[in-house]
Amino acid sequence: MALPSFMSVHVDSVRSVHDASEETRSIITGSGFVLRHRGQTFLVTNGHIVTGQHRKTGDPLGSAALPEFLNVALPMSGSGLGADEAALLGISHRRLDLYDDRGRARWLVHPTFGRSVDVVALPIDEDNQGGATGLTTTLLPYELGTSDPVAKLQPTQDLSVVGFPFGLRGGARSAIWVRGTIASEPDLPFEGESCFLVDARTRAGQSGSPVILFHPSEEVGTASAGAAAESWCLVGVYSGRTSGASDLGRVWNWRSLRAVVEGGERDVQAYD
Questions:
Q1: 50: in domain
Q2: pTM for this predicted structure
Q3: Which domain does 213 fall in, by range?
């Protein structure tokens, strides 16, 4: 089995219907992944997933309400199981608040371009969430690494978008892999932004997915501990198609992601 199949996280952006009620409604759903970098752990997804708004215009993507928190599904493991099989026992649902007690956004955005770069990083903790079942929540994080993979990419090369189209899951609730072909020069900004295009049959629900370069037959360096027989690296974050009629989608590159997790600032978005 390929470990990245169990490293993507299904994300549901939710708002309470009434302040004093447990009733909630989903604003938008997507994908994400856990990233560990320099001793910190983040949930990475798109800005439009945490706000429910278009990254440039601020127009609502469906409901006009702001999401209040994220419901995320994290893999679970039991005593004695290795990381490669962590997701086989099921998932643990965790609520991640999007705002602090003063109504300020908790997620980080790009230090220069803010939310117009459609990548955000929400700090999370790794506390044991096991409870009485004896199972523990196991985070399977990507490592950003120090080597920039973008300069090694080229048009016509295949990448994989690993997420949850239409909320679908594979066996053992694993992510779905969609192959994409690099369609624009990865090292040159598309429309002046730090992203490039992939030609892929992606659909709603895959926004926020990790985009990886995968070579299952090569036994070289890996993007995460515990996957010594696989060669793969994180190259960016997928954020949806350029239009509903196109199979061309944006991938915000590794450099954008690094800028967010190393120098990112809290978004100015406030909860109303």
A1: yes
A2: 0.88
A3: 3-266
The answer to whether 71 touches 92, Cβ cutoff 8 Å, is no
In this structure, are residues 27 and 196 in contact, taking their beta carbons and an 8 Å threshold?
no
- For residue 172, give both structure tokens: 């053992």
**Is residue 180 domain-resident?**
yes
**pLDDT band with cut points at 50, 70 and 90 for residue 251:** very high
Check residue 95 and give its pLDDT.
Answer: 93
**Phi and psi for 26 in degrees, rounded to 5?**
-80, 135
pLDDT tens digits, one per residue of 1-12: 788 998 999 999
Per-chain mean pLDDT for the chain: 85
Per-residue burial over 148-187, b = 16 or more CB atoms within 10 Å of its CB, e = otherwise: ebbeebeeeeebbbbbbbeeebeeebbbbbbebebbbebe
CATH of the domain at 36: 2.40.10.120
The CA–CA distances, whole Å, from 43 to 67, 104, 196, 244 equal: 16, 18, 22, 27
Beta bridge partners of 75: 91
Q: Which two tokens stand for residue 225?
A: 């501990």
Rounded CA separation 14/29 (Å): 9
13 occurs within a structural domain: yes
Mean pLDDT value of segment 243-269: 95
Count of domains in the chain? 1
Q: Is residue 196 part of a domain?
A: yes
Q: What is the dihedral of CA 265, 145, 179, 137, to 10 degrees?
A: -80
Q: How many CB atoms lie within 10 A of CB 41?
A: 16
Beta strands at 40-45 and 24-37: parallel, antiparallel or unpaired: antiparallel
Task: Tell me which residue of 161, 172, 171 sits closest to 205, measured CA to CA.
Answer: 161
